[in-house]
Amino acid sequence: MEYKLNRTPNFERLRRALLCEGEPDLVPNLELGVHPMHKSTIIGRPCVSVADEIEFARHAAYDYIKVQPRLPLLPTFANGHTEDAGKRNWATENGSGLITSLQDVEKFSWPTISDISYTRFEEACTLIPDDMAIIGQYGDIFTLVWEMMGFESFSYALYDDEDIEIVEQLFDRIGTLIYSMFETMASSNKVGALWYSDDLAYIGGPIINPKYYRQYLFPWVRRIGDLAKKRDIPFLYHSDGLLYSLIPDLIDCGVTSLHPIEPKAMDPYEVKTRFAQDKLSIVGSIEMDTLARGTTEEVEALVHDRIKRVAPGGGYCLGSGNSVPDYVKFENYWAMLSAGEKWGRYPISL
Question: Has residue 78 got a pLDDT over 60?
Fold first, then answer.
């Protein structure tokens, strides 16, 4: 069976949606990630190279490819392991992680800016067709900090005058590395958007007191936002969970687009209504549990609802409520894309 949607890529369509510049011709598709298994099913062979990624994107009606620089892996888990594809590890919650003192920070074998590899990014800049663009993506300044300390130790350190310097040092070192990636990516005219990802909240609310995000994380996010603003390109932020109390901060940092609007935590229509005056575009919100365990009919009904309620006026991109991992049924993933093709043409009349 051939899997190919009848849509010509057009990055301007996606750009207009992300910047809330009225209604484009179609509701764009957008994902933080799609498992290689599903990509391979769509193109009929392993999806490995940049050329493969471009072919997948054109078949599945994405107007972009997302590219990350390659940073030598930080052993953030207490057992010294990192998370590999197909193998899941859990970060330390109880007790301490790898970094327990300022001496540990100094002794740690930190990668430098010159260690970051842009090989795949440079190849993408060479191969990307004129009707598509690259989304430069990275993230996890906050996540890497607490993983390296262990969440419990990190939490105590926020309230300890002696240990808070460890937190400050980690945010500075990790933030400097990751900001440099966005600085490099933003310098290419092949990059049409920047995307920062870092989970800030649970379904019930922020993971930590928001004042610490404002003190340690958001200054870095704002600097990345300034890069996007200077280029006049969209700046996407990914975080799961209940974010209403943090959205004004994200907007103040220059974020133009919020992903994935986890539906168990927030209603995408409410998000759009509350922040319409800020021109915050909405990305995603198709329930993961439905994609993983539901029927194609249930997926189609969700897509119909999102397009009917959220897409009018523009500022909406269709996608999952997180990403498309291996445990999502392929037929449900394809049903989501196909339903978007069926109903996502402007003007919306459902």
Answer: no
One-letter identity of residue 159: Y
Backbone angles phi, psi at 213, to 5 degrees: -60, -45
φ, ψ of residue 31 to 5 degrees: the values are -135, 145
Phi, psi of 4 (to 5 degrees): -155, 125
248-264 pLDDT, tens digit per residue, is: 999 999 999 999 999 99
- Give the pTM: 0.95
CA–CA separation, 47 vs 45, rounded Å?
6
**What are the residue ranges spanned by the domains of the chain?**
11-72+111-139+188-343
pLDDT of residue 224: 98
CATH number, domain 11-72+111-139+188-343: 3.20.20.210
Q: Name the residue with tokens 């490819």.
A: 65
pLDDT of amino acid 54: 98
Alpha-carbon distance of 203 to 249, in angstroms, equals 18
- The whole-angstrom separation of Cα 332 and Cα 207 is 31
Longest dimension (CA), the chain: 62
Percent of the chain residues topping a pLDDT of 70 = 93
Which residue reads 């928001």 in tokens?
A: 210
* Cα first-last separation, the chain: 30
